[in-house]
Amino acid sequence: MDRLDGVTFFQFTNEILSTAIVIITASMLLYNITRHVRDRVTRASSILLGCVTISYIGDVFIALEPSKPQALENWFRFQWLGLAMIPAAMFHLSDALLATTGRVSRGRRRRASRLLYAVGAVFVLASLFTDAIVKSLVEKPTWHMKPGSFFLVYTAYFLVAVGFAVFNVVRARRRCLTTHTRRRMTYLLAAFTTPAWGLYPYSLLLSIFFDDVGTLSNVWIWVVFNIANVAVLAMLAFMAYPLSFFGTHQPDRVVKAELLEFMLRGPVTGTVVLAAIQIFAEATSVLGIEGQQFISFAAVTVVLCMQWMFTVIMPRLEGWLVYTHDQEQARRLQTISERLLTRADAAQLHEAILAAVCDQLRVPTAFVASIGEWGAHLEQVVGRIPEEDRAATEEFLTNGFSNGNDHDPLPDGLKRSGRYFSWRSFWLVPLYSKEGEENTLIGIMGIWGRTAEPNLNAEEEDTLNALVQRSIQVLMDERLQRRIFSTLGELIPVSSTTLQRTNVSAFGQVSIKPEKVEENRLTDSPEFIDLVRDALRDYWGGPKLAESKLLELGIVDHAAKTDGNRVHALRRVLVDAIERLRPEGQQNLTKAEWILYNILEMRFIQGRRVRDVALRLAMSNADFYRKQRVAIEEVARIIAETEQRLLETNQTQPQAESNASTL
User: Counting C-beta atoms within 10 Å of the first and last residue's C-beta, which end of the chain has fewer, N or C?
Assistant: First the structure.
């Protein structure tokens, strides 16, 4: 390789490395600002990363060598937006790190930080609009600018600010008392000076001491640039590790896993794709393929291969880097999301099973209903069953099969035919689970009847038996995991609230003032009315009451303090809301003002059938469902208003107590 080839190669490598640094710093900046913006260390490190990103963006465009010298000079001056602010940002970050160890600034460090930012802003203006800091664009040995008359003043400012910043981080490390905080602060100290020595404009300094910088070897200059960029790249990635623990309330395991996946799928993938584009752009003349077409193919191929490779090696990397202890528990945690069934997952499985039943038996409609202490509940329907018929179906199945009753005497309209039953236009197949030596009825599968009584051939019988067993397994899994989710529902709010109230991070930071937790305005959710309706339908017991999101309401929590049970407390809230719709005087079944209350009280509190309630109130089923919908909306409105009043009371009470204590 001759001398010119060596320079070209190192220039090409420097361009890739500079762009890689931009990708990594910008990615780290986005990672920071989307996670813990309220944390002071995170904010300060984000400012520092922003300065590094701006400086290296200038490097990237300078490496592209714009055709006009004025454009090139503009990019050199653009770099100073970051270069002038880096010393102040480093001091700001060091002050925030020292404060995390309990050495909070009493005003001097904070004033010094503001002063350094002000001085940096002066240098920015001087670099952009005057020749005081940089001047006179020079081409050899590589494009650079000469130092201005005040460049040494900037150097003094740089050294003083960076020196005090390093001193603060050393003090912070000495004040760390635990092993893990001292270790992470050591990592941070090792990488802390990277932005300083990696970005300082050495070419300007050399121009002061050497009359003719152009006599220096081009190759060695680019070698030094590349070595510096590789070091900066490695140290910036290394610095991301300790900084990710500041301001977080999550366990170390979660933070490491998030950071590892983010770095691999974001900055690493972006850097490799960029390198591939640059390399293949140079190779297209050899391969004889049109450049743009081949580069697009190469970029897509690299992205797909990288994502496939990360998917394959991610479990092993997590085992080495994240789950270094308690491997067995970590593996169990990783498989929970794959094994557990959410309500949506169960609904999809039921839908697939019922669709297979319809296809195999050549029928248009099928359903599956769960049977429990609360009665029957339609889990999934394939085909068309009107809303009013669905309610009637649940009511009939509750009366006919509740508590495992599938024996004589059978209710009117239900006929037995061997292991099957016939009702209206459906064949009903009982679904049993094996619990010990007893068979327990846990559900009913309904199939649109081709004839009055089931007439399945041997092949259809075998197929239906297999699908029935799958449906039974899904229902059993739902029952088991409902208990798991109920436990998790109690555990997660308690653990997360504890962390938020104490505001203790994994790095050892403790805030005296608890972090303000945003209220979850469930009452503003579009699904709030549906939640109220589901809770009323399962008023006397059922999954939509025991697992309802309404249990998270403040008024339910307040009622649970006296009832001792959140489900009972939710029933009490529902009854109170219904009672507020009750007009004054004796109950009347004919007056218009009593209609909403009568529907709610008879249908949900007394638990009567839709047909009976509609008959007593002298209205059709369609009219009943319309008025019932209005009544449920009124209940939801009352609950939302009560919740809002409780929130306002909780917000004003601490302020009143504070004012009283002040007096």
Answer: C
